[in-house]
Design brief:
By secondary structure, the protein is of the alpha+beta class.
């Protein structure tokens, strides 16, 4: 996890986060062992930080870990010239300040011993137990000699798999990367940029998802300084100018944020709400983002107000007082207490307007919420301790399986899809794309369960999240009770029901890749398509539609039959109209068949067009004064009509519909299939039945075909008559 020297141009650090004195520790580390009855001076400040969070912690194991780490790293130097032991000490101090428990700190002191010295994992296990051994193994890099160019992605894969069983592995890795980023200055510029990009694309999103904001924000600033030095210097100058306007305590009387903070303190004191009101400076990247968003920074844009209270109910009491005594900016209100973010974050966000018109953003949270907001999973202690405390020994589950109660849903999904990405390049590329999706939604299943998905996920993603490879057979979905295409983007709180085909031979369409956002879905779809190249047919899953010639309809007027006339409806039923010698046409807009109630209207040329009574054309003709003509049905041996079936695309759909039609004793005169649109397919059939009374049963049989969601009589635009 090596090293990197102190940067002479390290960025300005925020107050309240002291940095270890590497040179002093280097001198102390060279003094050798100390009496067994006291801690080495080199870890005295680590012990002090640890005791601040865990007053009853047993420090003897830290003493033993330091002795092993110091003796094994003795003689090794960092590129900056300090003894190498200063690196694990600095990493351990970072974690101790965030409240990590003793087991994590022990593993942190030893995290490079197996990788860089002759210490073995067996030795670590024998001296410190299985938990410490697991954590050390989790953060140990794979050798480039064995893995070549794949060493870095495979190391991250190994680390993420280990994190799936114990999130403390990633806590150590994040602290390790933070110290290496702090001391990156002596590296070549190209290597600095390479490390910074990996930190930006992988480590910072992981810190965000694990809720470790204290590490995430400093990593962002360090990466910002390396990858965007000009913007960083401009932002640094703005922050320095704002600091120069304040007095030594960090807040000047003319500072609008300080004035609002004083007013908020007075309001809460008068309301009898015990609260601590702090000014929380923004870090460099946050100031830069605000500047880009607003164009010009205001005096209150360099920080936010933080109100800390004792109980959850006090948070809402504070909110009520602020919205009563100040003018609130309603669009800025967010409740992350009732609906916590997926990274454990809880807080109320609002903004209020001061007396002089200055707008201040306000964060309201309890002290415990603040600890979790800063330290994330690190603040949760040891998830395996029998009492949920910070003891070094883990409780063994009865079934022998490690079940991390802190494992978030996104991590479970990541662990699932990485198993299907054996190629290191595919894993590395997909991991970066997955971590770039920094928001998450929750959708509900109809069986009462939930699915956690990244924002922008579609029904395709939900199908693979719920059913895995069985989702290959998905033919559609209902979102909030309404039929929806598989490409429909889901929103937080939606209820989704996935519809699967009974035919196990069904498979996904290449178009699904356009709608898949999760790696699990994309990998599964790509794998199926690669394995079935012969099945990448049109998305509706059938072979090209079979078509036949359109047949003319028949009709006549009393008293005698007339020659057949063409009709867009394609019907064989015989209509008799009360207009001698008139040519009869059955309207294509409503396709009337026996025993429909019908009427007729005279059109150009003296012909009579027959419509169903509920056809919209009937109302329009009556509104313009057209007189209806009486129409009745003559006995006929068969009936011809047009049906439209709308469905979700899938393989064998055309064959199944054809079979349903044949089972209902209907003959197919012609059939057309329109090009699919958004996974929907429209089939149009001209059919002939021996008896028109069988039409309702035929339409029911077609609707029962899996994937078909509607069957209707053909409706065509009405021509001018």
């Amino acid at each position: 996890m090596s090293a990197e020297a102190t940067s002479p141009g390290a960025p300005i650090r925020r107050r309240g986060r002291p940095r270890i004195d590497l040179r002093r520790l280097g001198r102390v580390a060279l003094l050798g062992p100390v009496p067994r009855d006291r801690l080495p001076d080199a870890i005295g400040h680590v012990a002090e930080a640890h005791r601040a969070h865990h007053p009853d912690a047993d420090l003897s194991i830290l003493h033993r870990a330091y002795v092993l780490a110091e003796s094994s790293h003795r003689g090794q130097m960092r590129k900056s010239g300090e003894p190498y032991i200063t690196h694990p000490l600095a990493v351990t101090l970072i974690l101790a300040q965030l409240g990590a428990e003793t087991t994590t700190l022990t593993a942190s002191l030893l995290h490079d011993t197996v990788e860089d010295t002759d210490v073995t994992l067996d030795q670590v296990r024998d001296q410190f137990g299985k938990e410490v051994c697991y954590l050390v193994d989790g953060v140990t890099k794979l050798e480039k000699v064995d893995y070549g160019a794949a060493a870095e992605p495979e190391t991250f894969r190994k680390m993420l798999v280990a994190t799936g069983d114990d999130v403390r592995v990633m806590s150590i890795k994040l602290a390790d990367r933070l110290h290496n980023m702090r001391t990156l200055g002596v590296m070549r510029p190209e290597k600095q940029a390479r490390i910074a990009k990996v930190t930006r694309d992988v480590l910072i999103p992981l810190a965000e998802r694990l809720g470790v904001q204290a590490l995430k924000t400093e990593l962002e600033d360090l990466v910002f300084a390396i990858l965007h030095p000009e913007e960083y210097e401009r932002t640094r100058a703005l922050i320095a100018a704002a600091s120069a306007r304040s007095d030594g305590s960090g807040a000047a009387p003319q500072d609008p944020l300080a004035a609002i903070a004083e007013n908020v303190t007075t309001v809460l004191r008068e309301a009898g709400i015990p609260a601590e009101v702090l000014i929380r400076p923004r870090h460099f990247v946050s100031v830069h983002r605000v500047g880009v968003k607003r164009g010009e920074l205001r005096g209150t844009d360099f920080g936010r107000l933080l109100v800390l209270v004792g109980e959850d109910a006090d948070c809402y009491a504070v909110l009520g007082e602020l919205h009563t005594c100040f003018t609130p900016v309603i669009s800025e209100f967010k409740d992350f207490i009732a609906a916590p973010k997926f990274n454990l974050y809880q807080s109320l966000h609002t903004a209020v307007v001061g007396e002089d018109g200055a707008v201040a953003e306000v964060l309201i949270r309890t002290h415990r919420m603040h600890k979790v907001a800063e330290a994330g999973v690190i603040a949760l202690g040891n998830p395996y301790a029998a009492d949920g405390g910070a003891g070094p020994q883990a409780a063994e589950p009865a079934d022998g399986e490690r079940a991390d109660p802190t494992r978030p849903g996104w991590l479970s999904r990541l662990l699932a899809w990485q198993q299907s990405a054996p190629d290191p390049d595919t894993f590395w590329t997909t991991l970066r794309a997955d971590l770039a999706q920094d928001r998450e939604i929750t959708v509900f299943r109809t069986d009462g369960g939930t699915l956690g998905l990244p924002a922008g996920a579609s029904c395709v993603d939900a199908a693979y999240a719920q059913y895995g490879n069985e989702a290959h057979n998905c033919i559609g979905a209902r979102v909030n009770g309404r039929l929806a295409t598989l490409g429909t983007v889901l929103s937080d709180g939606d209820t989704v029901q996935l519809l699967l085909a009974e035919d196990a031979a069904s498979g996904p369409s290449p178009d699904w890749l356009d709608h898949a956002r999760t790696p699990a879905a994309r990998i599964a779809i790509t794998g199926w398509l690669d394995a079935h190249p012969e099945d990448t047919r049109s998305p509706h899953g059938g072979r090209p539609a079979e078509t036949g010639p359109e047949q003319p309809s028949q009709g006549h007027s009393r008293p005698g039959p007339q020659p057949p006339e063409p009709s867009g409806a394609g019907l064989a039923a015989t209509a008799v109209v009360d207009r001698p010698d008139a040519t009869v046409r059955l309207a294509g807009c409503c396709t009337p068949v026996p025993p429909d109630a019908v009427t007729g209207f005279v059109v150009r040329g003296g012909a009579v067009t027959v419509h169903r009574l509920e056809c919209p054309a009937v109302a329009r003709m009556r509104s313009v004064g057209r007189a209806p003509v009486g129409v009745s049905w003559e006995e006929a041996t068969d009936c011809r009509f047009t049906l439209v079936a709308e469905s979700f695309g899938r393989p064998r759909l055309l064959a199944d519909l054809t079979e349903a039609i044949a089972t209902a004793d209907a003959a197919i005169i012609s059939a057309t299939v329109e090009p699919p649109s958004e996974q929907r397919v429209r089939h149009t059939y001209t059919l002939q039945l021996p008896d028109a009374a069988g039409l309702p049963a035929l339409m029911r049989a077609m609707r029962d075909v899996p994937g078909v969601y509607d069957v209707s009589r053909a409706q065509h635009p009405v021509a001018t008559v």
